[in-house]
Amino acid sequence: MSQTGILTMEGQKYPTEISDLEHLGELGHGTCGHVVKMRHKRTNHLMAVKQMRRSGNKEENKRIIMDLDVVIKCHDYPFIVQCIGTFITDSEVWICMELMSTCLDKLLKRTKRPIPEAILGKMAVAIVKALNYLKEEHGVIHRDVKPSNILLDERGTVKLCDFGISGRLVDSKAKTRSAGCAAYMAPERIDPPDPLRPDYDIRADVWSLGITLVELATGEFPYKNCKTDFEVLTKVLQEDPPLLPPSTEFSHEFCSFVRDCLTKDYKKRPKYKKLIEHKFIKKYEKEEVDIAAWFSDVTLLMAVQCRS
């Protein structure tokens, strides 16, 4: 049983025992474990630690291995959460990651306000590039794109996290049916032509990104009136896709980008290379947007609301 690992912090490597880490509280739950805030006692470095219990369940163990594999391989990509080290014991796997300030799901719930288009433009650039990197460099599809898996820090950095249900692509297609959040699932994953042989590709994540952007831009989940997952899935299959409401609030480019992401027929839905060339992405690749200042204002507003 290994209670020792190497943590890389601020460019320095530190041989570390599990006992060198102080538990500071719960941060949330991932696909196959819970995430806690911890402090490296010697350096005072703060981190997020995903703790996953090893079990006899093959599916759970597969998720742990996938999560480990992706974060270790992608540790230096700017739009994917950084792994600073791991601990693997007989009973648990710990993935130590950089500590981010919040996820977009929590931010939306606390502020109860939509996120401005310019901020979402920068976020969309980061997420599309992260998803494209996973596909092109590692042959991986995320399969769980949603606001709770998009992280933000006080510097305005946006990163993708949680790779437990990511899948390997074979000839650019996913060959397994893995779980994911029903609310953000693409039609072709809900109702595949051949349920025994699932055959979808990265465009399923493009749909999830579209739903995510509608939710963040309006401040409301597009299927918020549904009481069960079954109701959501039925609406996804039977109704027209949600779109941004027509208003002067959203640019033509943003509405067009969301409409492309939420093309119901996945064969007509764009892949990442086409999305990266979209006017909306091109605009926010170039445009200077101060996410850090916006986040600072939002954090201040939340603090005032808590006191009042």
UniProtKB/TrEMBL annotation:
<keyword id="KW-0460">Magnesium</keyword>
<keyword id="KW-0346">Stress response</keyword>
<keyword id="KW-0053">Apoptosis</keyword>
<dbReference type="GO" id="GO:0006915">
    <property type="term" value="P:apoptotic process"/>
</dbReference>
<keyword id="KW-0418">Kinase</keyword>
<keyword id="KW-0067">ATP-binding</keyword>
<dbReference type="GO" id="GO:0005634">
    <property type="term" value="C:nucleus"/>
</dbReference>
<dbReference type="GO" id="GO:0005524">
    <property type="term" value="F:ATP binding"/>
</dbReference>
<dbReference type="InterPro" id="IPR008271">
    <property type="entry name" value="Ser/Thr_kinase_AS"/>
</dbReference>
<feature type="domain" description="Protein kinase">
    <location>
        <begin position="21"/>
        <end position="281"/>
    </location>
</feature>
<dbReference type="InterPro" id="IPR000719">
    <property type="entry name" value="Prot_kinase_dom"/>
</dbReference>
<keyword id="KW-0479">Metal-binding</keyword>
<dbReference type="GO" id="GO:0005737">
    <property type="term" value="C:cytoplasm"/>
</dbReference>
<keyword id="KW-0808">Transferase</keyword>
<dbReference type="Pfam" id="PF00069">
    <property type="entry name" value="Pkinase"/>
</dbReference>
<dbReference type="GO" id="GO:0043408">
    <property type="term" value="P:regulation of MAPK cascade"/>
</dbReference>
<keyword id="KW-0539">Nucleus</keyword>
<comment type="similarity">
    <text>Belongs to the protein kinase superfamily. STE Ser/Thr protein kinase family. MAP kinase kinase subfamily.</text>
</comment>
<keyword id="KW-0007">Acetylation</keyword>
<keyword id="KW-0963">Cytoplasm</keyword>
<dbReference type="GO" id="GO:0004708">
    <property type="term" value="F:MAP kinase kinase activity"/>
</dbReference>
<dbReference type="GO" id="GO:0004674">
    <property type="term" value="F:protein serine/threonine kinase activity"/>
</dbReference>
<keyword id="KW-0175">Coiled coil</keyword>
<dbReference type="GO" id="GO:1902533">
    <property type="term" value="P:positive regulation of intracellular signal transduction"/>
</dbReference>
<dbReference type="GO" id="GO:0000287">
    <property type="term" value="F:magnesium ion binding"/>
</dbReference>
<keyword id="KW-0547">Nucleotide-binding</keyword>
<keyword id="KW-0597">Phosphoprotein</keyword>
<protein>
    <recommendedName>
        <fullName>Dual specificity mitogen-activated protein kinase kinase 7</fullName>
        <ecNumber>2.7.12.2</ecNumber>
    </recommendedName>
</protein>
<dbReference type="InterPro" id="IPR052468">
    <property type="entry name" value="Dual_spec_MAPK_kinase"/>
</dbReference>
<dbReference type="GO" id="GO:0004713">
    <property type="term" value="F:protein tyrosine kinase activity"/>
</dbReference>
<dbReference type="InterPro" id="IPR011009">
    <property type="entry name" value="Kinase-like_dom_sf"/>
</dbReference>
<keyword id="KW-0723">Serine/threonine-protein kinase</keyword>
<dbReference type="GO" id="GO:0006950">
    <property type="term" value="P:response to stress"/>
</dbReference>
<keyword id="KW-0829">Tyrosine-protein kinase</keyword>
